Amino acid sequence: MKAVIIGPGRIGCGLAGQLLQESGYDLTFLARNRELAAHLNRTGCYRVQLTGPTQWKEVTVGGLCAVWIEDEPAAVRALAEADVIGTAVGPQNLPAIAPLLAKGLARRNQPANVLAFENLINAGPCLRRLVRQRLRGPAAAVDHGFSGALVSRAVTQRLGSLDCDEPLLFIGDTPEKFMVHGPALRRPLPVIKGMVATDNYAMWVLRKLYVFSAGHATAAYLGQLKGYHYIHTAVHDPEIRAAVLAAMAEGQQGLAARFGKEIAGEENELPMIMARFENAGLNDPIQRVGRDPRRKLSANERLVGAAKLAQKAGVLPAKLALAAAAALCFCDPADPSCSELHSFVRNSGVEKALAEICGLDPGSPVGRSVAGCWEQLALGWQPGNLMLSLDRCMWSWSNGPQPVPVKVQNYGPPQA
Questions:
Q1: One fold for 2-199 and 202-396
Q2: Is 84 helix (H, G, I), strand (E, B) or coil?
Q3: Domains of the chain, residue spans
Q4: How far apart are CA 83 and CA 192, in angstroms?
Q5: Under DSSP, is residue 293 helix (H, G, I), strand (E, B) or coil?
């Protein structure tokens, strides 16, 4: 059996590749980075180090090959011969790979199953639409399967140099389960270690997004305000720990009211998630978790989406709102999303940012709550300043005691 993974990054190698190889598939990676493709071919393997609260193991994923994605004949041939195709390129890059994927599928007479290991609620339908727009003639009549693949594992780092002959090392935690939308795939379903097919895929995506991802983001955005560099150190801060647990609980309450307890999960699951955040073996950088804040602040994403659902359930999402306000402050000079976000808020004001970036009515309960938190943070925030207390919004100024001028509309105190 053959499997092709487009994108030999942290998830492509650190989860999908490992599980596919352990399920008996021969692996081919399609890589945008020519040097990475050459390194994988030269070494013929890579290592995955998995660490959890009570266990640690390292596995070697070998017997693989890689193709530079610009070598189109070889890439198309690999896609045409694959029994399973996976993508792990990031949601923003799906349009770029769709033409190549369409060319590979057009060479097939039998349906293929494509699994999108992307952190996107509609990854399967999105990729199906992008590919079908490019299929013509008899190829368009072949009904391929497209599903998102909801990942449980966090893969935080890739270590190693592409210039040497030592295998790359990917560091992640131990969960193996990933969920797919069973009805969207063609029978027979591929047999892959860790794969669970469900009829309620979108609901399970929301569960991860509005609980785990919301807590992760809260730790990152509040952690940077208080000067932390890693998730595991941030969540040992008592204020941040309490805020993370409260944000996840707010997300759970919204999910329970909308979808029921099975999807929301139990309250006793939150300490188990917190134990994953505390995993020092992952050395998970706050910059990695917080990057692309503009996308993560959008209407249905982990903070604003969870806050709106909680508000509909009659819950004031105080900590989700605080985390969203903190996301407006997130700084990463290497992330264009940050500079765009800061420029938008500086030039247009926070109320317009809430409307156009977050899809929030600034006068709504959630909008007022985020705006209220932002007003408090903005009194002392600027890059380099250090927050000493979340509860009292106390700052230590490294760039002078003058607050940053911002356009803020006073909507009054947040209301339930």
A1: no
A2: strand
A3: 2-199, 202-396
A4: 12
A5: helix
- What mean pLDDT comes out for the span 224-253? 97
Two tokens at 292? Answer: 């692309």
- Is residue 244 a contact partner of residue 274, using CB atoms and an 8 Å limit? yes
| One-letter amino acid of 394 | M
Cβ atoms 281, 287 nearer than 8 A: no
| Amino acid code (one letter) for 140 | A
DSSP string, 43-76: H-EEEEEEE-SS-EEEEEEES-EEEETT-HHHHH
Tell the CATH superfamily of the 2-199 domain: NAD(P)-binding Rossmann-like Domain (3.40.50.720)
Beta pairing class for 65-68 and 195-198? unpaired
311-336 per-position pLDDT tens digit = 999 999 999 999 999 999 999 999 99
- Give Rg (Cα) of the chain: 22
> Tokens for 373?
């938190």
Instruction: Label residues 109-132 b or e (16+ Cβ within 10 Å = b).
Output: eeebbbbbbbbbbbbbbbbbebbb
Report cis status (omega within 30 of 0) of the bond before 188.
Answer: yes
| pLDDT at position 406 | 42
What is the predicted pLDDT for the residue at 384?
80
Reported in sequence order, the residue ranges of 257-345 that DSSP labels E, i.e. its strands, are none
Angle between helices 72-81 and 94-106 (to 10 degrees): 70
Distance in angstroms (rounded) separating the CA atoms of residues 40 and 42: 5
- Torsion angle defined by CA atoms of residues 180, 182, 188 and 190, in that order, rounded to the nearest 10 degrees: 10
Angle in degrees, CA 308, 220, 400, rounded to 5: 105
Domain 202-396 in this protein, CATH class:
mainly alpha
Q: How many CA atoms lie within 13 A of 219 on its CB side?
A: 31
SS3 assignment, position 5: strand
DSSP SS3 for 235: coil
Dihedral Cα 221, 53, 25, 186, nearest 10 deg: -60
